[in-house]
Automatic annotation (TrEMBL), chain A:
<feature type="region of interest" description="Disordered">
    <location>
        <begin position="1"/>
        <end position="40"/>
    </location>
</feature>
<dbReference type="InterPro" id="IPR020568">
    <property type="entry name" value="Ribosomal_Su5_D2-typ_SF"/>
</dbReference>
<keyword id="KW-0694">RNA-binding</keyword>
<dbReference type="InterPro" id="IPR036345">
    <property type="entry name" value="ExoRNase_PH_dom2_sf"/>
</dbReference>
<dbReference type="GO" id="GO:0000176">
    <property type="term" value="C:nuclear exosome (RNase complex)"/>
</dbReference>
<dbReference type="GO" id="GO:0006364">
    <property type="term" value="P:rRNA processing"/>
</dbReference>
<protein>
    <recommendedName>
        <fullName>Exoribonuclease phosphorolytic domain-containing protein</fullName>
    </recommendedName>
</protein>
<dbReference type="GO" id="GO:0000177">
    <property type="term" value="C:cytoplasmic exosome (RNase complex)"/>
</dbReference>
<comment type="similarity">
    <text>Belongs to the RNase PH family.</text>
</comment>
UniProtKB/TrEMBL annotation, chain B:
<dbReference type="InterPro" id="IPR015847">
    <property type="entry name" value="ExoRNase_PH_dom2"/>
</dbReference>
<dbReference type="GO" id="GO:0000467">
    <property type="term" value="P:exonucleolytic trimming to generate mature 3'-end of 5.8S rRNA from tricistronic rRNA transcript (SSU-rRNA, 5.8S rRNA, LSU-rRNA)"/>
</dbReference>
<protein>
    <recommendedName>
        <fullName>Ribosomal RNA-processing protein 42</fullName>
    </recommendedName>
</protein>
<dbReference type="GO" id="GO:0000176">
    <property type="term" value="C:nuclear exosome (RNase complex)"/>
</dbReference>
<feature type="domain" description="Exoribonuclease phosphorolytic">
    <location>
        <begin position="227"/>
        <end position="289"/>
    </location>
</feature>
<dbReference type="GO" id="GO:0034476">
    <property type="term" value="P:U5 snRNA 3'-end processing"/>
</dbReference>
<dbReference type="GO" id="GO:0034473">
    <property type="term" value="P:U1 snRNA 3'-end processing"/>
</dbReference>
<dbReference type="InterPro" id="IPR001247">
    <property type="entry name" value="ExoRNase_PH_dom1"/>
</dbReference>
<dbReference type="Pfam" id="PF01138">
    <property type="entry name" value="RNase_PH"/>
</dbReference>
């Protein structure tokens, strides 16, 4: 344990092509708020998520770990525990089950601007919302007097295409408010943390998958439309297909149980009908991600751990 | 808070049969008294005391400070607040970013752990931090209602910073809603000194410098107060949900949904807390209920604030 170089980032040794999420089984459902697919920069339909890559068993000294890449976002998560609670708390220890502690850290180089080492309120609220989304999936009542530590390191949060020279030119759009970006970082955080929990062999009801949806207002008409898993460009320009960004929702879903474990909505998202439509599309998207990516990552991780040859590569 | 099996069963059955231990139905609220303007040294203040025992005092102080460039540099901006205003480079940097041309709101909540004896002191502290983040986030957002642009003094370097300091004086459940009501009341009561800005361009260097003057006696109201949303928190207990819960009901609830409702009666921020999960259909039902309660709360708040305004006008006469 002591020989591990903690300053090194234990990223993947090699890169792997992301799995395509589209297949013939999952035909897109047409809806009133359907948008012309060409309106999205990367040619996705409005209810398609970006290709994502996930794998488990990244950090050899942790009980469980996972890594996820969605677009430009790269997140690594390590889970330690369950272990005994060492600090004495005044009430509830004997009655309550275990507890989880989430820690989200943004690497100083994760954004366009360097961020200090000090934790700020955004990281705190990310961690809190993450804990809220994960807790329903865990059977904490079975783990009395114990704690599970979830550590998340966000290695990259924004697309790194703005170079030092281009910031001075007038054509470059102002960077979006960092808070908007951070709230949309929550969905991959949820997915990767749940994967790491599963990798650690912790008893769970279901894995939790996160999904975000951006809500836009049409500039010509006064109606709203939504886009699942908005990308960096879509967030930055905030005006797409004749729409203006009005808000976003992040949903944590337990796909097999069909229940929502986390929900954060910001902005003037219109009436309940539109919002619920967007939330339901997120639920469907999460089920797809769960079927295609999460299950595959867990099975691959299991095989890698059980076969001695490939298992050694992750222990380096 | 540890609840015995019998207590939990009693509460759940009561909620299921639409009669709670204090005689209310699921959607009945306890009466709340709103008094604003009690603290003379603050720019604005408000005290909300609910019949259930929750009492919150909010004092607002406005100060000249620096705008937050992005959330990540907010801490640096605080440090730089004392920088001289006529720094022309700072002023020029600002032009593109909307965040530089607006004021900001900072919220802090203080609660003595002794007020909530059923909770762990550290948990009380965490709760206060969470609530202050929720309030800060809503008030600083576009959907928060406040006209933050009007709080800008010199773009990029100087703006009004509104410090919302809340003090929890009593706890009887439903803390977040009460805190936000009190914050809303206090912001309605807030007066900001008038500021005059003079712009001058130096002939030799071409740099523009700003000088501003804060009036001692002239004040103006905070713009956009009436558009600040209200927060309605729904507590799911068993298969039903209640509003304005008692501490016991809060402890029995597994899902809490805080919904901010704007003046149009539409949700503008939602946050789920609690250890349970929820079905999408029930989520829609809860948001619908929150909308209905939000509209009532808006009406009640408007009336209460109007009463305070009339009273303070009579006092000054």
């Amino acid at each position: 344990m002591d020989s591990v170089d903690r300053k090194r980032i234990h990223g993947p040794d090699k890169s792997v092509l992301p799995l395509p999420l589209l297949d013939s089984q999952h035909e897109s459902v047409t809806s009133k708020t359907t948008l012309n697919p060409s309106a999205r920069f990367d040619g996705r339909t409005h209810e398609e998520v970006r290709p994502l890559f996930a794998r488990t068993a990244m950090v050899s000294q942790a009980n469980g770990s996972a890594y996820i890449e969605v677009g430009c976002i790269k997140i690594i998560c390590a889970v330690y525990g369950p272990k005994q609670i060492t600090t004495k708390s005044k009430s509830g220890d004997h009655h309550s089950g275990g507890r989880i502690s989430c820690d989200v850290r943004l690497a100083p180089f994760a954004g366009l601007k360097r961020k200090g080492y000090m934790k700020d309120t955004n990281e705190h609220s990310l961690a809190k919302n993450l804990a809220t989304a994960l807790t329903p999936s865990l059977l904490l009542a079975h783990l009395p007097k114990s704690q599970i530590d979830i550590h998340i390191q966000i290695l990259q949060a924004t697309a790194g295409h703005v170079s030092a020279s281009s910031t001075s030119s007038a054509t470059v759009l102002p960077p979006p408010s960092f808070a908007t970006n951070l709230s949309l970082l929550l969905s991959p955080c949820i997915t990767v943390a749940s994967l790491a929990l599963a990798d650690a062999g912790i008893e769970m009801m279901d894995s939790v998958v996160g999904c975000s949806v951006g809500l836009f207002r049409r500039t010509d008409k006064n109606s709203l439309f939504w886009m699942v898993d908005p990308s960096e460009e879509e967030r930055e320009t905030r005006a797409l297909g004749g729409g203006v960004w009005v808000g976003n929702a992040v949903v944590g879903v337990m796909p097999s149980v069909g229940r929502i474990s986390g929900l954060v909505v910001d902005g003037d998202v219109g009436d309940v009908g539109v919002l619920m439509e967007a939330v339901n599309v997120c639920v469907d998207a999460c089920a797809k991600v769960h079927d295609v990516v999460v299950k595959k990552a867990l099975v691959d991780g299991f095989h890698a751990a059980s076969s001695p040859v490939s298992g050694s590569s992750s222990a380096v | 808070m540890a609840v015995s099996v019998c207590e939990r069963e009693f509460t759940l059955t009561g909620v299921a049969s639409n009669i709670r231990s204090d005689g209310r139905g699921r959607s009945d609220v306890r009466a709340a008294a709103v008094e604003s303007g009690g603290i003379s040294q603050a720019s604005g203040s408000c005290r909300v005391s609910s019949a259930g025992g929750t009492t919150v005092l909010v004092g607002i102080k406005v100060a000249v400070g620096a705008p937050a460039v992005t959330a990540s540099t907010a801490a640096d901006a605080d440090l730089d607040a004392d920088i001289a205003v006529d720094n022309s480079e700072d002023a020029e940097l600002s032009i593109s970013d909307a965040d530089l041309r607006r004021g900001r709101v900072v919220c802090a909540i203080d609660c003595n752990p002794a007020i909530i004896p059923t909770m762990d002191p550290r948990a009380v502290e965490d709760l206060c931090i969470d609530f202050s983040e929720v309030i800060t986030k809503i008030l600083n957002a576009d959907h928060g209602g406040l006209d933050l642009q009007s709080l800008c003094i010199v773009p990029g370097s100087t703006c009004w910073v509104i410090h919302v300091d809340a003090l929890v004086l009593g706890y009887g459940g439903n803390l977040l809603d009460t805190l936000f009501q009190a914050t809303r009341g206090a912001l309605h009561d807030t007066l900001i000194p008038k500021v005059t800005v003079e712009e001058s361009t130096s002939a030799s260097t071409g740099n523009t410098s700003y000088e501003f003057d804060v009036a001692d006696d002239e004040t103006e109201d905070l713009k956009g107060c009436e558009n600040i949303p209200v927060i309605v928190t729904l507590f799911k207990i068993g298969h039903h949900h209640v509003i304005d819960p008692t501490p016991l009901e809060e402890a029995c609830s597994d899902v809490q949904l805080s919904v901010a409702i704007n003046r149009k009666g539409l949700p503008c921020a939602i946050q789920k807390t609690g250890n349970g999960s929820i079905e999408p259909s029930q989520l829609a039902e809860m948001i619908q209920d929150a909308k209905a309660h939000g509209a009532t709360l808006f009406k009640d708040m408007d009336e209460a604030i109007e009463r305070q305004r009339v009273r303070s006008l009579n006092d000054t006469k």
